[in-house]
Design a protein that fits this description.
By secondary structure, the protein is of the alpha+beta class. It contains 3 helices and 5 strands, in the order βααββββα. The radius of gyration is 12 Å and the shape is globular.
Length: 97
C-alpha cells in the first residue's frame, strides 16, 4: 500500500501561479511520494528539514527556483501533507515544519 498525499489550500492556490513545466515536475514528485514514500534523495537539493519534514527543488536550474515542502503527518496510516509549493524565496521553512 502506498502513501496518501494531501495538499494544503496554499498549495492549491500556488499551483495556479507556477509555470507549466514546474507543475509537471511537481506531479512527478507527488507520484513518487505516493508510491515510494517521503524520502526522495533522487531529487535535486532534497533535504530533511526536521525529523518528519522534507523539501526539494522542482527544477535543477532557473530563476526563480521552485521548491516543494512536505511532512509526514501520520506514519501509521501513511499520510503526507504537502505544505508548500512555490518559489524558494517565498518558503518560510520554520513555519512549514
Amino acid at each position: 500500500m502506498g502513501w496518501k498525499v494531501e495538499l494544503s489550500n496554499k498549495v492549491d492556490k500556488n499551483l495556479k501561479k507556477i509555470p507549466k513545466k514546474t507543475k509537471e515536475s511537481f506531479q512527478v514528485l507527488l507520484d513518487e511520494i505516493r508510491m515510494l514514500g517521503p524520502v526522495r534523495g533522487n531529487w535535486p537539493n532534497y533535504g530533511k528539514l526536521s525529523k518528519d519534514c522534507h523539501h526539494c527543488h522542482l527544477q535543477k536550474k532557473g530563476k526563480p527556483t521552485y521548491v516543494a515542502v512536505w511532512k509526514v503527518t501520520d506514519k501509521g496510516i501513511k499520510i503526507i501533507e504537502v505544505n508548500y509549493v512555490g518559489t524558494h524565496e517565498g518558503a518560510n521553512y520554520d513555519l512549514l515544519c
